[in-house]
Design goal:
With 867 residues, the chain is of the alpha+beta class. Helix content is 24%, strand content 25%. Strands 12, 13, 14, 15, 16, 17, 18, 19, 20, 21 and 22 form an 11-stranded antiparallel sheet that branches. It has a 6-stranded mixed sheet with strand order 9-27-26-23-10-11, sandwiched between helices. Belongs to the glycosyl hydrolase 3 family. One of its GO terms (molecular function) is alpha-L-arabinofuranosidase activity.
Length: 867
């Protein structure tokens, strides 16, 4: 009896164990002890085809029966966590590239990923899983900035493949971190793959064709390869344009042969937003490569695009039924995307993920503020300093003018967060020397010498001054309003930094109506100015007066001949899908008088003119109405004429001018080298802009930024913008005389190079080259030098004249000498082999050129032989 009872009890234990094992096996995807791949494969088996397809779209809906939360793959962190509210805003990437400091860049993106994790915890704990709230950030942009006219070049790390690779790897390592408890910190994304750098205006139809093997492997692909193979980047984004006749997001050559087969990439490919639409949309709206959405979606998945930013993948279930694609191909993509979500810990209990323990105080912490300032300082690039005008004495009377002097938004560039505070350049100067020594005169706008005297204060409804504002949570003004507001100052909104237009209004997909009655005090022309992203319709007395879409700069959209005392009912309807921006004002146009402007600064010892351009002029697929700009790109590279004229008149009047140029690209500053004693390239320096600029102008920081792009004299020195052939482009192939060469930048001290030594003058292919470079600070100030090492192969007459293969930013006290040892690995010594059409260590004679810029006069030469 006892024995039998024991058997029954043991059988019961066996049954219970079996049941437990069964449950465990049934829910293996919930077991954090299994690998992400094992969990992904288990979860895949539980999904219907429709659920799989839903997960493959960037705004993924929840699947409650399996405990899968909603997730949006689209988040941004170009130079700080972006479009998610307040965050630390670092300099734009082209400025950070000018630092030539990948160690500091790693620290920047380690800080960015900390802030992103905090944001994700805050959003997810309150049930928010929307756009810009996730852990997959679509940066870095490692396209080659091959032509200064490209509006998005500001988002890159410059024109050189090696610099781009080094900086890109630092970004990826900083974002993704070293796994803790098996979880990645974030997932970075290398974009836009590949051969993609403008034009913006035709990017949805453009075909990059006849790309030589040399240009492909030597220029356009190296950074992508390094981020895949050396940094283990977890996402790659395919581009809008076509490559050799095939849309990049449906290119078997790019995504399967090169990326997955040759480079053995195992992670996610995501599409650029609505790029899958471009595959089937007919010319001139798309490539017209497939007949309909089902064929386009099938092609993209079959060639390896796992996640779509868009909604075309919703046609995949129908495509399977039509036999256009096999569900097994869909399964491959779904496993990859599920693995990524498990790697991030996004589907596990937050207590298991160490990254979720980061405190709220991390966001814009004092350490991050200091890091933003440090990077802004290191980005400052001094291009000219005639008669050593800089640094300025702090007891001088300074007149500050120019369109960027008081503009905080320009300092943020694009794809930005919203800083808690931005130090404008005039604020930085006042903080440095005292407001009593500083006068401000606008001088001119970016492209116009016209100012607007606002009549906004002449508006009221029933005696209450201002405009009423009504908001809807849709784009067609339908249903009940979700918010009301009252505005007493001109409209100035931007949701790009994650800031809502009004309390209770969403960041995207909303409409607004602004209404008041204007009673002018005087008769005359009243100009209505607007710039926006989205759509608008303007009514006066119920009659439509204007209608349109995105306007990049404040533009006069209507001139009303007003009568004093007469009432005009004004209504502005506005709607936007995402990233709304709206600036609206009206009043009297006043021409700025340069003679009066110059007279107003006659007592100043020096004029600091803060000019250049703006992200409102250069950027991504924009509708800019201004001379010299098209679709966000530029048609010329000169400083806008109105600024150029004012600088010349200041010079003619005998004023000493320091020109602080804010731009995300190279400008042709030939006249400015004559009209300005000093030129400081400040880029778009982020939240600490004014402090960093003032530190340099007044000598509290010795500049050491170096140009990551060539500054040409004019567009006549450039090939056709739409020609992707590298001949004549960038310092590597440009045969003319640049205004300021790649790698160039001045200091308040001087440096000298001694004769470098090679450990070996003959090396084996695949071996190491080691050189020791003596460098001295021969001036009277402590400073930093960026040592640059270039490789050249004299026998290759079709190859680059020189190409960067190493750099080191070193600090030297006044009078100090250092022996700096630099090692070049086999990868650093690769050269394009015309026989095999590959990059490899090609035997032959080589030159190493080392010094402080890419200009021949700044370089010394060593020779070695590779066997």
């Amino acid at each position: 009896m006892k024995f039998t009872h024991l058997i029954k009890r043991n059988l019961g234990i066996v049954c219970l164990c079996s049941l437990s094992i069964g449950i465990s096996a049934q829910e293996a995807y919930k077991n954090p002890k299994l690998t992400p791949t094992e969990r992904a494969k288990d979860l895949l088996k539980r999904l219907t085809l429709e659920e799989k397809v839903a997960l493959m779209q960037n705004s993924s809906k929840p699947i409650p029966r399996l405990g899968i939360k909603a997730y949006d793959w689209w988040s941004e962190a170009l130079h700080g966590i972006a479009r998610a509210g307040n965050a630390t805003v670092f300099p734009q990437t082209i400025g950070m590239a000018a630092s030539f400091d990948d160690a500091l860049l790693y620290k920047v993106f380690d800080a960015v990923s900390d802030e992103a994790r905090v944001k994700y915890r805050q959003f997810s704990s309150s049930g928010q899983f929307g756009r810009y709230q996730g852990l997959t950030v679509w940066t870095p942009n490692i396209n080659i900035f091959r032509d200064p006219r490209w509006g998005r070049g500001q988002e890159t790390y410059g024109e050189d493949p090696y610099l781009t690779s080094r900086m890109g790897q630092a970004v990826v390592h900083g974002l993704q971190g070293t796994p803790k408890a098996g979880y990645d910190k974030l997932h970075a994304c290398a974009k836009h793959f590949a051969v993609h750098s403008g034009p913006e205006w035709n990017r949805h139809t453009y075909n990059a064709e006849n790309i030589s093997p040399r240009d492909l492997w030597e220029t356009y692909l190296p950074a992508f390869k390094d981020l895949v193979q050396k940094a283990d980047v977890k996402e790659v984004m395919c581009a809008y344009n076509s490559f050799e006749g095939s849309p990049c997001c449906g290119s078997n050559r790019l995504l399967m042969q090169i990326l997955r087969d040759e480079w053995e990439y195992k992670h996610l490919v995501v599409s650029d937003c609505w790029a899958i639409n471009d595959i089937y949309m007919p010319v001139p709206k798309g490539h017209g490569a497939e007949p309909d959405p089902a064929h386009a979606a099938s092609r993209a998945v079959a060639t390896g695009t796992d996640v779509e930013c868009g909604s075309v993948y919703g046609n995949l279930p129908a495509a399977v039924k039509q036999g256009l694609i096999n569900e097994d191909k869909i399964n491959q993509s779904v496993v990859r995307l599920l693995k990524a979500r498990f790697e991030l810990g996004e589907m596990d209990d937050p207590s298991l993920v160490p990254w979720m323990q980061l405190k709220d105080e991390v966001v814009n912490s004092p350490e991050h503020q200091q890091l933003a300032l440090k990077m802004a300082q290191e980005s400052m690039t001094l291009l000219q300093n005639r008669d050593n005008l800089l640094p300025l004495a702090k007891n001088l009377k300074v007149a500050v003018m120019g369109p960027n002097a008081t503009d905080s938004v320009t300092m943020w560039a694009n794809y930005n967060g919203l800083p808690y505070h931005t130090t404008t350049i005039i604020e930085g100067i006042k903080n440095k020397i005292g407001a009593d020594k500083v006068t401000y005169v606008q001088g001119c706008g970016y492209t116009q010498n016209v100012a607007l005297n606002s009549f906004f204060d002449q508006c009221a409804i029933n005696g209450k001054p201002g405009f009423e504002a009504i908001y809807w949570n849709n784009t067609d003004f339908s249903g009940d309003a979700i918010a009301n507001d009252w505005l007493t100052t001109p409209l100035n909104f931007s949701a790009a930094g994650g800031t809502v237009f009004s309390r209770g209004v969403p960041l995207s997909n909303f409409s607004a109506r602004y209404h008041s009655v204007f009673t002018p005090k005087e008769s005359g022309d009243v100009s209505f100015y607007m710039n926006l992203t989205g759509s608008y319709t303007l009514y006066i007395d119920g009659v439509q007066q204007g209608k349109g879409r995105s306007i990049g700069l404040p533009t006069n959209i209507l001139t009303l001949k007003a009568e004093a005392g007469k009432s005009y009912d004004i209504r502005l309807d506005y709607s936007v899908r995402y990233d709304g921006t709206l600036n609206f004002d009206f009043g009297k146009e006043v021409n700025l008088d340069f003679t009066k402007t110059i007279a107003s600064v006659k007592d100043a010892d020096v004029v600091v003119f803060v000019g250049g351009i703006s992200p409102k002029l250069e950027g991504e697929e924009m509708a800019v109405k201004a001379d010299g700009f098209k679709g966000g790109d530029r048609t010329n590279i000169e400083l806008p004429a109105v600024q150029r004229e004012l600088l010349q008149q200041l010079y003619n009047a005998g004023k000493k001018v320091v020109f602080v140029n804010c731009s995300g690209s190279a400008l042709g500053l030939v006249p400015e080298t004559k009209s300005c004693e000093a030129i400081l390239q400040a880029w778009y320096p982020g939240q600490a802009a004014g402090t960093a600029v003032a530190d340099v102008l007044f000598g509290d920081y010795n500049p050491a930024g170096r140009l990551p792009v060539t500054f040409y004299k004019n567009v006549e020195q450039l090939p056709d913008f739409e020609n992707y052939n590298m001949k004549g482009r960038t310092y590597r192939y440009f045969k003319g005389e640049a205004l300021f060469p790649f790698g160039y930048g001045l200091s308040y001290t001087t440096f000298a190079y001694g004769k470098a030594k090679l450990a070996k003058s003959i090396v084996k292919a695949g071996g190491l080259v080691e050189l020791t470079i003596p460098v001295s600070n021969t001036g009277k100030r402590d400073g930093e030098e960026v040592i640059q090492v270039y490789l050249s192969r004299p026998a290759d007459v079709d190859g680059p004249t020189k190409t960067l293969r190493a750099f080191r930013r070193v600090s030297l006290k006044a009078g100090e000498n250092k022996q700096v040892t630099i090692k070049l690995t086999a990868d650093d010594l690769q050269w394009f082999d015309t026989k095999s059409n590959t990059m490899r260590c090609v035997p032959g004679e080589y030159k190493l050129l080392y010094g402080g810029s890419s200009a021949d006069k700044d370089l010394k030469v060593l020779r070695f032989k590779m066997n």
